[in-house]
């Protein structure tokens, strides 16, 4: 018979060997290429960089607000710490605070010098700054 091929019984996989191979490779559907791994790693690195940058900006704002050189602070959207409901879920309150979600838009400093005013430079969302009785130098 032309065009037909016959297989010997030894070359046919038995039911037990197929089941055994499926059991030995339960993760066979999770195989991926090296290119996929590199793309996934790059995307995770960019995401981690964004989160670290966001957290660093919140830390700098927290330190600027905690310094004694700023008397009055107004957050965007009229948020008032302590009286407004926190934007942070309870389960995240140990890691995040309102500085992660609201920028300082108005600040007033009184009797501040150069060293205490450096904290104000860390307020990236600052729109209005009032200085009174400050003792600072302007250097170009």
Characterise this structure.
- The protein is built from 3 helices and 3 strands.
- By secondary structure, the chain is α+β, with helices and mostly antiparallel strands.
- It has a 3-stranded mixed beta sheet with strand order 1-2-3, with helices on one face.
- Strand 2, helix 3 and strand 3 form a beta-alpha-beta unit.
- The longest helix has 33 residues.
- The chain is elongated, with a radius of gyration of 31 Å.
- The mean pLDDT is 75.
Write the layout of secondary structure elements.
Layout: H1 15-24, H2 34-66, E1 70-75, E2 104-110, H3 114-117, E3 128-132
Parallel strand pairs: 2-3
Antiparallel strand pairs: 1-2
Brief summary of the model shown:
The protein is α+β, with helices and mostly antiparallel strands.
Roughly what fraction of the amino acids lie in strands? Answer: 5-15%
Q: Low-confidence segments, ≥5 residues, pLDDT <50?
A: none
What is the topology, as strand order, of the major beta sheet? 1-2-3
* Percentage of residues in helical conformation: 25-40%
Quickly count the helices.
Answer: 3
Shape descriptor: elongated
Give the termini separation: 96 Å
Mean pLDDT: 75
Order of helices and strands: HHEEHE
**What gyration radius follows from the Cα positions, in whole Å?**
31 Å
**Total beta strands:** 3
Largest sheet: 3 strands, mixed
The chain-level structural class is: alpha+beta
